[in-house]
């Protein structure tokens, strides 16, 4: 029997199941978006126009606001600032949704965690805001659907975080009381406060420069980490373990 099968994964705060946000939690959305933004900007600049190219990339990333700017509004602002970007909003949004998928990567430490949870039969799921088709394409591209079928996407479910109903539905799917569920996410309001209000324990992934909002008590975050890799030791795992390497990656 391998070490992967015998080594026990321990969850903190007396929890026995996990729920994860998707974007900038189970995959690095910011990194994927930056890759798309650079590819998009390169369509409109000669390679010699380095300053102009970098300026457009910075603008594309800034107005995205970590994905919270509606795509119709987003491309309205893009075309206002860069008239050379042609096409209808519907066309631009469809191309964006198609192209950004190519920049999404399942990081080794995330694959490692999912493998360990599966090996130890620790239930987990995903609760994410967004369009059902786009979010499920991300999940399928990452291969996360091979590890869990407890997946809740707001537009499909009919309510979005921080609405309590989507958290409670996920807890029911996991067949666990909310007090035994550890929710991991990067958004203080949607993820951490949302999970806290239904009695879940929480881990905030603090991506700089995002700061904790003044209107929410910092006490709703039971634990705080800077990166997903920092989460592993809290779960009794160690990033240096031999199992965590690129050879584990599926496909």
From TrEMBL:
<keyword id="KW-0460">Magnesium</keyword>
<dbReference type="InterPro" id="IPR023214">
    <property type="entry name" value="HAD_sf"/>
</dbReference>
<dbReference type="GO" id="GO:0046872">
    <property type="term" value="F:metal ion binding"/>
</dbReference>
<keyword id="KW-0479">Metal-binding</keyword>
<dbReference type="InterPro" id="IPR036412">
    <property type="entry name" value="HAD-like_sf"/>
</dbReference>
<dbReference type="InterPro" id="IPR041492">
    <property type="entry name" value="HAD_2"/>
</dbReference>
<dbReference type="InterPro" id="IPR006439">
    <property type="entry name" value="HAD-SF_hydro_IA"/>
</dbReference>
<dbReference type="Pfam" id="PF13419">
    <property type="entry name" value="HAD_2"/>
</dbReference>
<dbReference type="InterPro" id="IPR051400">
    <property type="entry name" value="HAD-like_hydrolase"/>
</dbReference>
<dbReference type="GO" id="GO:0044281">
    <property type="term" value="P:small molecule metabolic process"/>
</dbReference>
<keyword id="KW-0378">Hydrolase</keyword>
<dbReference type="GO" id="GO:0016791">
    <property type="term" value="F:phosphatase activity"/>
</dbReference>
<protein>
    <recommendedName>
        <fullName>Haloacid dehalogenase</fullName>
    </recommendedName>
</protein>
């Amino acid at each position: 029997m391998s070490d992967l099968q015998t080594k026990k994964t321990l969850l903190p705060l007396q929890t026995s199941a996990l729920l994860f946000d998707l974007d900038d939690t189970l995959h690095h959305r910011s990194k994927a978006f930056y890759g798309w933004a650079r590819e998009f900007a390169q369509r409109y600049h000669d390679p010699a126009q380095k300053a102009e190219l970098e300026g457009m990339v910075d603008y594309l990333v800034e107005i995205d606001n970590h994905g919270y700017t509606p795509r119709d509004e987003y491309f309205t602002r893009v075309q206002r600032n860069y008239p050379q970007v042609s096409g209808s909003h519907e066309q631009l949004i469809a191309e964006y949704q198609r192209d950004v998928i190519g920049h999404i990567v399942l990081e080794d430490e995330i694959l490692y965690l999912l493998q360990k949870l599966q090996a130890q039969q620790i239930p987990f799921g995903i609760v994410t805001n967004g369009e059902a088709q786009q979010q499920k394409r991300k999940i399928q591209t990452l291969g996360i659907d091979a590890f869990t079928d407890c997946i809740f996407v707001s537009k499909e479910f009919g309510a979005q975080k921080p609405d309590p109903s989507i958290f409670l539905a996920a807890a029911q799917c996991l067949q666990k009381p909310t007090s035994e569920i550890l929710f991991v996410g990067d958004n203080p309001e949607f993820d951490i406060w949302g999970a806290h209000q239904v009695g879940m324990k929480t881990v905030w992934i603090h991506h700089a420069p995002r700061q904790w909002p003044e209107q929410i008590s910092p006490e709703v975050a039971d634990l705080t980490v800077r990166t997903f890799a920092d989460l592993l030791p809290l779960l009794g795992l160690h990033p240096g373990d031999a199992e965590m390497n690129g050879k584990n990656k599926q496909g």
